[in-house]
Design a protein that fits this description.
It is a single chain. By secondary structure, this protein is of the alpha+beta class. Helices cover 39% and strands 9% of the residues. It has a four-stranded mixed sheet with strand order 2-1-6-7, with helices on both faces. The longest helix has 28 residues. The radius of gyration is 35 Å and the shape is flat. The chain starts with 21 loop residues before the first strand and ends in a 6-residue tail after the last helix.
Length: 1092
């Protein structure tokens, strides 16, 4: 029954007019309630809010032995009901049942009680602290109990850091406090048995302590130099942890335990946390009773006593006891001076004077001093034509460059690449530089009037002319078609109304109607965005470094602080994160058929493909090679810098990507990442920007040559899970389906749309000019489908006709080949090489998963296929039709045959085509989907076995039973000769024992019988796998199989990149769970297979 408003007036009195209206029920033994007690004291609210401190827990919940000191329990009527015994015990459940007689729930402290309405306003410690802090902002600071001056004037929840503080609270609850308490209660409930769930929660808590230790080495408190509500909550928990939880919950014997935080004389395992706690103790000490935390040791007895009282056993009174430790050492340690603590600039109190000049505001967005509201209104209400181009680009995101490119496509060059008559003609807007409509004077008449008046308006007009050209709004409207309007203003509320559907009835554009009777929008929208970190650096150095520096001085708060401020950024055109969000809204409102998003980095890395994309979007004739080359040369940074007299020249700085890596420190960039996530989680337009924000590709694997059967890839840095969307790498939305990300978890298509369709016949005997094979395979040893394709190449003896490269593993940009690859057009390029480059060359705008295998045509630079079974067929058909099979010894007599004399080896004989297809589609392919598909679904859902997962696993085990039975009748699936479907199945079986059993938690599931290769549960499948292993062994990379065990870390890391919390992008390796012994599996396979 929380109070409906965001604040309370704690100055109000109760109905008697003599006592505070609001009252706190707390307990010093509860660290959450202790946070509230401390906040009340620090904020000087002792006279504003009365309080009762519980004597402890009883068999009826929290008890106050001396009674309650607030209404209605201190009124005459209530005292009479109690027999005039003012010292009668009061139980907290009485407050809960008075507030709601049918209450069902926990009887918890703290509880904020309204004596007038007889309601519990909140029993959430965080909410109570926030309400108190909100009230304290208006009180005299002299009544605060802040001897160190570390609480900001705005209280414990300053508005400019509110989002950070809330994220910090959630981080602490989800990763430290919650795991410790959940695991602890489960530990006591299970009779001190440590289940895997408990171990996982402990591990999570210890990792979080390490992260907090690192953070507090860089900053005095969690959010900087000022104490916030998050600091009080953390400190209260740490006091309770050392005084009680380490021992009570068995944490001292947990894997990962490093030692006490606070004990004096102990090893400095957490020296920064200890120093932080000492400072917080100095602030909170008058309100703390650390000895009360030892009351929690009664929990162990209470759990057993409660169980015994509900059983048939006699209660003897002798229950298990845990001896509490002394708090003397803790208090002695806390009273030790904290020493020097890190500082990160002035406190909020000191920085309050370092303000920034007020800005012109438009629709809640700050504007530059030359912004004209009358001109913007004309632009906003203009009549948009079908062929109009509205360019909306963020500050320092590539506006100048894209404007020049658009001029080149629309006006400056003909199809032969020659300059047109209007090239560089400054009588047209946007030709020698941007001409922003929101800064232009509306008409020449108004211009003359303002010049005549003189003063600031006349000076501003001259400044606008120098930077944006001598144009008016009338001139912009009179441009020859197609008209180009270039501006920094973003979003549906600031761009021209008639660009959007249903504009005449949807002024707010809160919900665009799809009613066919509404007027349709006109024109095309182009939005330009860039890596926001590079945007920050470019803005800082634009026309010289910012006067207020990065972090602030006497001139202002600093370019970093201004730029990172999500709520009150004073920069022209506002906060970059907000700008991206508003632009995404505009793109969604216009629709993808009339909106194009250009990413600066994509334009830099693949100008040719992006130029064709822009040309197609504009509806222009096919772009000729001559025109494309002319535009590319004319729009290069060097060329634009040399064009004397062009206003474009002024706006060009470095025109590079990743310049941000040369500035600021890691901590600052982590702050940018968290701000990005707070503002842009769930915004699909921002997903490519998320990838650009990495300096280097995260999660690079070790080289295959450095791996063996004992290598544990879980110790490697975690990698992102990515896919390609419109030619750009983005985090794979299938795995980013958590609370911080709301985009649909669509699975990217695995079958590449731009494949060659050669039918049955492929000339695998053709070569390049240098004699190397025309066709090339990209595979990865960790992928059984790719290994199947590689095995067919070997079984048919096609090594000299189809070249091949094996990936070293996955990285944050997909499969990587650390030493480069051996085929055209990349053979001369040094490594590393990423597989996504193959997809992007084949189709620069593809949307697809970055999967192996790929059969590549080096002549046409096209992907023949990325479907494993299709590639196996193509190779087999081509080898048979051309008579090119050269099977290794021991293979020829085991492979199927075709031809008049049945003497042509092939894995897909014509007379068995239907049988192969049938068994593949009905058994082998569904088996892979049932085990692997549901396995990934399990990992994606945090290893929770949903009904879908359980049914998939049962289906997979049933198929294994069917295959076991089928193999009773022959050596292989279709008789006594190997076909392509056998090759696919054997690699699945190898992975099943080596990886799938444990990674996908198959052991113990319904239908599980046991391993295939190292037991006798599936004798036919085991013998079948042994026999085939000896034939496909050259294509088996057991040292790669374990790479799949990185998936859990990879999913966590990918999701952590959307986190707003401390060190959200750092994921600890987990190497404590033992992996399957690959030596045993290999030994089982190497043994001589039994006769079948």
């Amino acid at each position: 029954s929380r109070w409906p408003s965001s604040s309370l007036d704690f100055d109000r009195k109760d109905n008697t007019g003599s006592r505070p209206r609001y009252h706190l029920f707390v307990s010093s033994s509860c660290h959450r309630a202790s946070s509230v007690i401390a906040a009340r004291a620090v904020l000087g609210l002792k006279d504003a809010i009365s309080m009762d401190v519980s004597d402890g827990q009883s068999g009826a919940g929290w008890v106050y032995l001396g009674g309650a000191s607030c209404a209605p329990w201190r009124t005459g009527r209530e005292l009479q009901r109690r027999g005039d015994d003012s010292e009668a015990p009061f139980w907290l459940h009485e407050a809960y049942t008075l507030a709601d007689p049918m209450y069902t729930g926990e009887i918890r402290v703290p509880a904020l009680w309204d004596t007038s309405t007889r309601r519990i306003l909140s029993n959430d410690h965080w909410e109570i602290m926030r309400l108190m802090s909100e009230h304290a902002k208006g009180t005299d600071l002299s009544v605060w109990n802040d001897p160190m001056g570390v609480v900001a004037n705005e209280g414990l929840f300053p508005e400019d850091a509110a989002v950070d503080i809330e994220e910090m609270r959630r981080y602490l609850e989800e990763n430290l406090i919650g795991p410790v308490e959940r695991a602890g209660m489960e530990y006591l409930r299970n009779g001190r048995e440590r289940s895997q769930a408990i171990l996982d929660l402990w591990r999570k808590a210890f990792v979080t302590l390490d992260k907090l230790e690192g953070r507090l080495g860089d900053t005095r408190f969690l959010a900087g130099n000022d104490v916030t509500g998050a600091d009080i909550c953390l400190a209260s928990f740490v006091f309770c942890l050392d005084a009680c939880y380490w021992e009570l919950f068995g944490l001292r014997h947990a894997p990962g335990y490093r030692g006490s935080i606070l004990y004096a004389g102990g090893d400095a395992h957490y020296s920064n946390l200890r120093a932080f706690s000492r400072e917080m103790y100095r602030l909170m000490e008058p309100a703390l009773d650390i000895a009360s935390f030892e009351q929690n040791f009664r929990l162990a007895q209470a759990v057993e006593f409660t169980r015994l009282s509900c059983s048939c056993e006699t209660i003897s009174g002798d229950v298990v006891k845990i001896s509490p430790g002394t708090v003397d050492e803790i208090i002695a340690s806390l009273e030790t001076p904290a020493g020097d603590r890190p500082r990160t600039g002035p406190t909020k109190r000191a920085a309050a004077s370092a303000s920034f000049p007020p800005q012109i505001m438009c629709e809640g967005v700050p504007m530059p001093p030359f912004f004209r509201h009358d001109s913007w209104q004309l632009y906003r209400n203009m009549d948009v034509r079908d062929d109009d181009i509205i360019l909306s680009s963020g500050v320092k995101m590539g506006t100048t460059w894209v404007t020049k490119i658009l001029n080149g496509l629309l006006h400056d060059f003909d199809n032969d690449g020659n300059m047109t008559a209007v090239y560089g003609d400054d009588s047209y807007p946007n030709r020698l530089g941007q001409s922003y409509p929101e800064v232009m004077v509306p008409t020449r008449e108004i211009e003359r009037q303002e010049i005549a008046e003189g003063g600031a308006k006349g000076e501003m007009r001259e400044r606008v002319k120098n930077n944006f050209g001598d144009f008016t709004i009338d001139d912009l409207m009179a441009q020859p078609a197609p008209r180009l309007f270039s501006s920094h203003v973003p979003g549906p509320k600031m761009l021209p109304k008639k660009l959007f559907d249903g504009w005449e009835e949807n002024e707010s554009f809160g919900s665009i109607s799809n009613d066919v009777n509404h007027k349709k929008g006109k024109g095309r929208l182009i939005v330009v965005v860039r890596n926001l970190k590079d945007t920050l650096v470019s803005s800082h150095f634009f026309r010289g470094a910012a006067k207020d520096g990065w972090y602030g001085n006497e001139h202002g708060p600093g370019s970093f602080r201004r730029w990172i401020d999500l709520k009150n950024c004073p920069n022209p055109y506002g906060n970059a994160f907000q700008w991206v969000q508003m632009s995404a809204d505009a793109v969604d409102a216009v629709g993808r058929d009339r909106a194009l998003v250009i990413y600066y980095e994509a334009l830099k890395s693949n100008f040719d493909a992006q130029l064709k994309r822009i040309n197609a979007f504009l509806g222009l004739p096919r772009l000729t090679e001559a025109k494309a080359l002319a535009i590319k040369d004319d729009c290069s940074a060097n060329s634009m810098r040399k064009k004397t007299g062009h206003r474009f020249q002024k706006a060009i700085r470095k025109a590079v990507i990743k310049d941000w890596t040369n500035h600021l420190d890691e901590k600052s960039w982590e702050e940018v990442d968290r701000a990005f996530n707070r503002a842009l989680n769930g915004v699909e337009l921002a997903d490519p920007l998320r990838i650009f924000q990495f300096g280097d590709v995260p999660g690079m694997p070790k080289g295959l040559k450095d791996c063996d059967l004992n290598t544990d890839p879980r110790s490697w840095p975690p990698h992102l899970l990515v896919t390609l969307k419109e030619g750009m790498i983005v985090p794979d939305p299938y795995f980013v389906n958590n609370a911080n990300y709301t985009a649909k978890a669509n699975v990217a298509p695995t079958c590449f749309n731009s494949t060659i369709r050669p039918g049955r016949f492929l000339r695998i005997d053709e070569t390049e000019k240098d004699g190397s094979p025309r066709f090339h395979l990209f595979v990865a040893g960790a992928c059984p489908l790719a290994s199947s394709a590689a095995a067919v190449r070997t079984l048919l003896g096609l090594e000299n006709m189809i070249s091949m490269d094996v990936s070293d593993g996955r990285s944050g940009a997909g499969f990587v080949f650390l030493n480069g690859v051996t085929c055209s057009p990349w053979k001369a390029q040094e490594g590393p090489f990423w597989l996504h480059e193959v997809y992007q060359l084949a189709d620069p705008l593809c949307t697809t998963s970055i999967s192996v295998p790929i059969l590549w045509d080096t002549e046409t630079h096209r992907i023949v296929s990325n479907n494993s079974f299709e590639i196996m067929k193509l190779m087999s058909y081509a080898a048979a039709d051309l008579g090119l099979c050269s099977c290794p010894d021991g293979v020829l007599n085991k492979i199927a045959k075709q031809g008049d004399n049945m003497n042509i080896p092939t894995l897909f004989p014509d007379n068995m085509k239907d049988d192969i297809e049938n068994i593949f589609t009905s058994m082998v392919n569904p088996l892979q989907g049932a085990i692997v598909g549901t396995g990934f679904e399990l990992l994606r859902n945090n290893c929770i076995k949903s009904r879908q997962v359980l049914e998939g696993q049962m289906k997979g085990f049933a198929m294994l039973e069917d295959l076991e039975k089928l193999l009773e009748n022959g050596c292989y699936l279709l008789g006594n000769h190997i076909t392509g479907v056998d090759v696919q199945l054997v690699f699945f079986l190898l992975q099943f024992d080596a990886c799938y059993l444990d990674l996908f938690e198959l052991r113990g599931s319904d239908g599980y019988r046991g391993p295939i290769l190292t037991s006798e549960h599936y004798p036919n499948l085991k013998a079948y796998a042994r026999a085939l292993y000896h034939l496909v062994k050259p294509s088996v990379h057991f040292e790669s199989y374990r790479q799949l065990y990185q998936m859990r870390q990879a999913i966590e890391f990918t999701r952590s990149c959307y986190s707003c919390s401390v060190d959200g992008n750092k994921v600890a390796s987990n190497t404590q769970e033992e992996l399957p012994n690959l030596q045993n599996i290999v030994a089982a396979l190497e043994s001589i297979p039994r006769a079948r």
